[in-house]
DNA sequence: CTTTTATATAGATTTATTTTCTATTTTTAA
DNA sequence: TTAAAAATAGAAAATAAATCTATATAAAAG
C-alpha cells in the first residue's frame, strides 16, 4: 500500500506514544475518530504496524550494561551460519544479532547487569556456541540516542 | 523498587504485547484486574515502564537498509564530544548512537531505503558534522534477531 | 462527461476496557 | 500480638474501542 501524509504522521505519533486515544489522534490529524480508527486497522492488517509494546528503562532494572560484540565464525558454510544463528537467538541477553558484511560476520548487541555478568555470559553462554572463531567486545560508555521511531 | 516474580512476568508480557487487556493479563497472572492495574500504574510511576510504542515493520516502509557506522572524532575534548552528540541526535536516519570504548568513539545504527540513500546520507549529512575524524560503515546482510524485550 | 463502483469519512450506537471506589485480606513492622 | 501499611478483590462509574448506517469523495467504466 502507499502511505499518504496522514498515514505517515499517524505512524509517527503511534511510534512515539501508542497510548494516545483515537480521539486525541483525530484532533492532531483533523479527521474523525472513525477515519483514524480505520487507518490504524489498515496499517495493522498490512503488517506495517508490526506490534504494540512496552519499552522498559533498562537502567532501572539492572540491565544498564550494554556491549557490542563483533564476531567471526570459523567457516562460512550455510550449515555453520544456520546452526550459529539458531543458537544465538535463544540467548535472552542478546537483543540484536545482525549478519553483516566486512571484517567480521555478526554484530551482537548484548544487555546485562554489569561487567561481571558479561564475563559470565561470555564464558558460559556465548563462547560455548558452535563454530565461533573469534569475538571482540566493545563497551558502551553512554547512550547518546536510542529510538525505535523510523522516519517514514 | 524491588520487582517480584509477578512484576517480572507482567513486564515480559507487556514488552511482548502492550495491547493485552488487564483482563487477559489477570488470567495469565492469576490476579484480579485491579491488582494487575495497580501493578502497571506503579511500574509506570517508577519509570520502569518508560513508554508505550508501536513498532513498524521497516521492510514494508522502504527502510530496510541498515548500516552500522563506526566513527572516530578528531579530538576527545568534552567540547567536541558534546557538539558532535547534539548534532547527531538530530539526524532521523540515526536510530542509535552509542559512545563506546575501544578502537573508535561511537557506534551508530542507521536506517535508510537503500545504498543510494545511504550514500546521500553519508555525504550530505553525517560527514558534514563537525569534528569527525573517520567513519567505517558495515552493512547488514540479514537481521538474525532484533527485540526490545529485556529479560528481567 | 456521466454513471457505476469502490474507498474513505462522519456521527451515532453498542460493546468492551479502564479507572475509581469501597471493603477485605495479606504483609510488614512496632 | 497488635497496629499500620500495602496489596488485592469485586462492583460501579467513566472512558475508549469497535461496530453500524449513512454520506461524501475518489477512481474506473461506459
UniProtKB/TrEMBL annotation, chains A, B:
Q: Which GO terms describe its biological process?
A: regulation of DNA-templated transcription; response to amino acid
Database matches in SMART domains: HTH_ASNC (SM00344)
In what residue span(s) does the HTH asnC-type domain sit? 3-66
Q: What keywords would UniProt list here?
A: DNA-binding, Transcription, Transcription regulation
UniProt KW DNA-binding keyword: yes
Q: Name one GO molecular function term.
A: sequence-specific DNA binding
Gene Ontology cellular-component terms for this entry are: cytosol
Q: What is this protein called?
A: Lrp/AsnC family transcriptional regulator
Give the originating organism: Flavobacterium rhamnosiphilum
Amino acid at each position: 500500500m502507499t502511505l499518504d501524509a496522514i498515514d505517515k504522521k499517524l505512524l509517527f505519533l503511534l511510534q512515539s506514544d501508542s497510548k494516545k486515544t483515537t480521539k486525541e489522534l483525530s484532533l492532531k490529524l483533523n479527521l474523525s475518530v472513525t477515519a483514524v480508527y480505520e487507518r490504524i486497522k489498515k496499517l495493522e492488517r498490512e503488517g506495517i504496524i508490526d506490534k504494540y509494546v512496552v519499552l522498559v528503562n533498562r537502567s532501572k532494572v539492572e540491565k544498564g550494561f550494554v556491549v557490542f560484540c563483533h564476531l567471526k565464525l570459523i567457516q562460512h558454510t550455510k550449515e555453520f551460519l544456520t546452526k550459529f544463528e539458531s543458537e544465538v537467538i535463544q540467548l535472552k541477553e542478546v537483543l540484536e544479532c545482525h549478519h553483516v558484511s566486512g571484517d567480521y560476520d555478526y554484530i551482537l548487541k548484548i544487555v546485562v547487569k554489569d561487567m561481571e555478568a558479561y564475563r559470565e555470559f561470555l564464558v558460559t553462554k556465548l563462547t560455548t556456541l558452535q563454530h565461533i572463531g573469534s569475538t571482540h567486545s566493545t563497551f558502551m560508555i553512554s547512550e547518546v540516542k536510542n529510538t525505535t521511531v523510523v522516519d517514514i
